[in-house]
Amino acid sequence: MDEKIILKYTDIPEQKNIDTYIKNGGYKALQRALSEYKPDEIIHLVDKSGLRGRGGAGFPTGKKWSFIPQNIPLPKYLVCNTDEGEPGTFKDREIIEGDPHLVIEGIAISSYAIGAHKAYIYIRGEFAKGAEILTRAINQAKEKGFIGENILGLGFDFDIDVYRGAGAYICGEETALLDSIEGKRAMPRLKPPHPVAKGLYSSPTVINNVETLANVPRIIENSAEWFAGIGTPHSTGTKIFCISGDVNNPGVYEVPMGTPLKELLEMAGGIKDGKKLKAFFPGGPSTPILTSAHLNVGMDFESLKKIGSMLGSGAIIVLDEDRSIIKTVARLTEFYRNESCGKCSPCREGTDWLLKVYQRIIDNKGKKEDIDLLLNICEDIYGTTFCPLGDAATMPVISSIKYFRKEYEEYINGKCSNINN
Amino acid sequence: MENINILVEKELRDILKKYDYPRSAILPMLHFIQKKYGSISKKDVEIIADLIGINPTEIESVLSFYSMFNTGSSAKYIIYACSNISCEFKGAGEIITFLENRLHIKVGQTTGDGKFALRTVECLAACSHSPVIQINDIYYEHMTIEKMEKIISEMEK
Amino acid sequence: MENVVTLTIDGREITVPNETMVIEAAKKLGIEIPYFCYHPLLKSVGCCRACLVEVEGMPKLQTSCTLPVRNGMVVKTNTPLVQKRRKGVIAFLLANHPLDCPVCDQGGECDLQNFSHRYGSAVSGLKEFKDQKRTFQKYYIGPFVEREMNRCILCKRCIRFYDEYAGETTLGEFERAADTEIRTFYQTEFNPGFSGNTIFLCPVGALTDKVYRFKARVWDMESVTSVCPLCGTGCSIRIWTRNNRIMRITPDMNNNSNKGVLNNFLCDRGQFGFQYIFSNERIRTPLIKDKNGFVPISYEKAIDIIVSRLKKSIAESGVDSVGGIVSASCTCEEIYLFQKLFKEYIGSANVDFQSRISDSKQVNAILDESAEYSDLPGSGGFFVLGTNILHRQPVLGLYLRNLTKIKGYTLLLAEPYKTGMEDCATLSISYTPGTEAYLIYGLILCMLNPENIEEISHREGFEKITIETVEQATGVSKEILQKISSALLDKKSWTIIIDGEKESVLFSVHNLIMILNNMKKDITKSKILPVFSRPNHRGAMKIIQKSFNVRKIIDASLSGKLKFLYLLEVDPVSEFLDRKEIESVLKNVEFIVAQDVFLTETSQYASIILPGKPSYAKQGSFVCSGGIVRDLQEGIKENMESEWKTIIRIAEGLGYQMKYDTIDEIKNEMLPLLQKKGKE
């Protein structure tokens, strides 16, 4: 647990305060970045560190930054994606509330790297407190000259704005998020053009997750090699896992990439009430569910992919032996059904249809064929939707039927009354 | 009343000034109105549309997309109960039922005196402290029926 | 050629321009790919997902409406996977659809019905949740369009039409996910003007025609293509009839065609305005004035009286004591016969069409060089001057809105009042009404050096005009005039769109164009595009050549020389500028024949009134403001005598043999008159 990179200081209440942050070594990385590195050197450094996006897709951060076209007369923007909406995910909130300056410093360095003079922190509307903490921190940073014109006398002008969402899971999708800042209905945009070419206000834009950006100051402070030495060869650094559900100590746990699930469960105090593990979502409900057979899986991009799941947002939701898979997935299906933006027909209508089938099953009116109907609907959603939300909605359904078909059958046959919730 | 509207309009103008791209002021303006009045009226939408220079339809269209904006009756305390699985596993359902009985309203309704409104929401990203209830802008974590009762009776005063 | 690419679709090669989308390339090969949100005249959004295809080298299926063609691309539109996914998409679209096809006006021309039939699954879970279909409340959105949200598949063509063409609207998209609804802001009516287009754009029965509602099934109707008579644009229309009654008017297209904006869209006036023909106020029989007012007489008797009065006037007061004015809403063939009767047979010079006040020769010479609609996309920019185009020629205005706002063409706008084009303009100015000629002269002043100005001034009688006088008259500052003139001198060709009925403006702009083309010899010539309220202004101008103008007819009557006047579908009292004058003119004429569809303000001065046919019941041709000859077909048959036959009857009464059995014979004889000068 001495390998904490991001959550190193979040337990200290005064860490929000800029003086404490500076006392703990804060803003040194910014000073160093601006004075010792050219922007492209920082991109190179981040690339070398192997840092990959922590929002879900795991795209190499340095590579994304390198796509920003230089030598064009448009402003460039950095957007910090704080629309943490994936159920079971709460790491970004912990970071911004616990160590806001770390995020701000990360944004400043990253903006310098890509040549952006303006950054937006898009924060989900529900995080009123987080928005307040960030705003206060930004003002402190402005007073101390870490944000503003000619930062630290090193010739870089830079400003950050906190932009509040208003309740829409789809804003986690980066182009929908951009539409949201532009004051529109947040609906994913057609790609290409990708945001790096034409993003916010039609200008080149990089969108990174909070956790991703919070790693940047640490990479500057230490070194790319140091970062690359943590975790696995292709999933470097640490990952913050949010463990919730049926465990004794739910919470955030920062561990090196590749740490086996088993260890994480132990850290979280094991399954509640001494029960057995039934299943878990390794990276939020948008990642295929896994079972107790997968306890030894290393929690990193590659290992999870190998067994047919994904690292996702790092939200491990644990279900004990008594949880009803059907009711759980039904609740998640309701979530996707309501959070679909409605733009494309397979997602809008498909999720609505899935929910109707689940409701029928839960109302004990299910038919034997409903299991195949669910799979069939998922098959027609998966890969045909405009954005990944549709695909995500199919994950819990397909994977839960894969591992718990018997439970579905029993439920439909009315033999499942002993299972709670 | 007239004066209040002028003041509010001035504040809306100040928000608008912050953005180079006027439409970007829509969400901040709506947040501002909602915080001030608890809900957003047709008139508010028209004022915002006028300030931004677009048709009110565009504002309403954006407003209705986001789940946090309230156009119905407002309440002094809007209770948002997280009902996604991590909270559900920790008893969110019982708390919601308790609130319905305690306040004599169903989810989605407002009490007759306009004091409480009850809503369910999706994951509030506080799952380590579940079940979570948000009242106006504040999170109440590790909720139990006892704690809920205490909060409600406090607010009833 | 570097601007084309070659790709393979279903094993067949095709070469297309490089900005083509795969769906369009496939269409060129005759390969049908189902779609709902795609429309050839709207930007692709890729939201219905019905047009998915397989592309070699791409792991996921691609929406062919958003996929630009690339060299060497190999596309498959009909693989088992594509078929399966299409079935899926169609099943999704039907999942919440009410399937109320038997009572839906879209039946027979519904894309959802057709594509489901062709590509959907015979077996589906549709019946599964028939009691749990999503339903929406009835909702009023306006007088012409009925909204049935339950049928909507959220392709959003209606909203996109407003975004890309008609502009601001109260029609919008509300809520989200499966609860998304298309409606207006708090029950407001959504903008009239172009609202009817959403009916044709809607691929399903979510937006239907209120006027046509429940009147007929599409397969029970007959239809002909014709030309809209309600302004100078000359939009192609399809007249749909049942039992010789017009049920509806639509553009001459279906969703699968792209004949360009001017043929695919209509304005609400053009689409719904036809209903006047059902009016009880229509004149159905000839009327004659007696002591007690107008009383019906037979057609034969009316013709006899007209002929005898004509004979009498000619015998007593000479051929110049008779004359006629014809409307620019009449067909070329009617106008041709009308002027032939007066000029060729009777020998009177007193024939003209409404409101013309100057020599047509010069005007025709200018108009022969004017822009055709097909020139517009090749134009570098548009200068719209004093036309109120969205009102005068709405669909042309709609086209310009799209070209300027969406396609990025420059628009300079000068109008005395707001006209609804401002949001598309690069530069928009207002000037004092009626000072167009000053304004143009001011622009010329800004462009030329002093010596040249002297020459022009001399020619135009503008000797004493300086930039200051222009500023004073127009209310437009020198700086703005300079801004416009330097924009016009930009290295591109311009189309200057003006009110074609104001001949002084036409002449001034003609000078401006000559100067522009002189100064920019190396680029495509700038051109004028005149705008007219009447459908056949240009035709009338061409056909009635070398005549005295209306002014002379008026003068002749004021001096008591005019004894007989035939007014063919023209209403001078309400149409001519000086009402008092025209009223005394009409009082002065002994015998007036007024032929029209309705009684007009002029009717009271008539001695005999003849019924007229609406254009929807006429065969013939119009010359539209873009200079193209367009053919009308008889959508309905009306049992009164046609105008052209009436003219022949009168001629025969006078002893002249007009030997025409069909409109085509007249047309063939008349057509050479419509030729442009210098063109074969």
| Helical percentage of chain C | 25-40%
Main interface: chain pair and counts: A-B, 52 and 42 residues
The biggest sheet of chain A amounts to:
5 strands, mixed
Q: Helical stretch count of chain A?
A: 16
Please provide the count of β strands of chain C.
Answer: 26
Cα end-to-end separation of chain C: 32 Å
Shape call of chain C: globular
Number of strands of chain A: 9
Q: What order do the SSEs of chain A take from the amino end to the carboxyl end, as H and E?
A: HHHHEHHEHEHEHHEEHEEHEHHHH
Mind describing the biggest β-sheet of chain C?
7 strands, mixed
Strand order within the widest beta sheet of chain A: 6-5-9-7-8
Overall pLDDT metric of chain C: 91
> Which segments of chain A are poorly predicted (pLDDT under 50) over 5 or more consecutive residues?
none
Computed over alpha carbons, the radius of gyration of chain C is 29 Å
What is the beta-strand fraction of chain C?
15-25%
Mean pLDDT of chain A: 95
- Class based on secondary structure composition and strand pairing of chain A: alpha/beta
- What's the total helix number of chain C? 23
Q: What descriptors fit this protein?
A:
heterotrimer, A: 421 residues, alpha/beta, 5-stranded mixed β-sheet, 4-stranded parallel β-sheet, 43% helix, C: alpha/beta, globular
Write up this protein.
- The complex is a heterotrimer of chains A (421), B (157) and C (680).
- With 421 residues, chain A is α/β, with parallel strands linked by helices.
- Chain A contains 16 helices and 9 strands.
- Chain A has helices at 18-23, 28-36, 39-49, 61-66, 91-98, 100-114, 128-143, 174-181, 210-221, 224-228, 261-267, 301-306, 325-339, 345-362, 370-381, 388-412; strands at residues 77-82, 118-123, 159-164, 205-209, 238-245, 251-256, 277-281, 290-291, 315-320.
- In chain A, the strands form 2 sheets. In chain A, strands 6-5-9-7-8 form a 5-stranded mixed beta sheet, sandwiched between helices.
- In chain A, a hairpin with a 5-residue loop joins strand 5 and strand 6.
- By secondary structure, chain B is an alpha+beta fold.
- Chain B folds into 2 domains: 6-65, Arc Repressor Mutant, subunit A; 77-156, Glutaredoxin (3-Layer(aba) Sandwich), CATH 3.40.30.10.
- Chain B is 49% helix and 11% strand.
- In chain B, strand 3 and strand 4 form a beta hairpin.
- Chain B is elongated, with a radius of gyration of 18 Å.
- Chain C has 680 residues and is of the alpha/beta class.
- Chain C contains 23 helices and 26 strands.
- In chain C, helix 9 packs parallel to helix 22 (643-653), helix 13 runs antiparallel to helix 15 and helix 13 (436-447) runs parallel beside helix 17 (503-519).
- Chains in contact: A-B, A-C, B-C.
- At the A-B interface, strand 3, strand 5, strand 9 and helix 13 of A face helix 2, helix 4 and helix 5 of B.
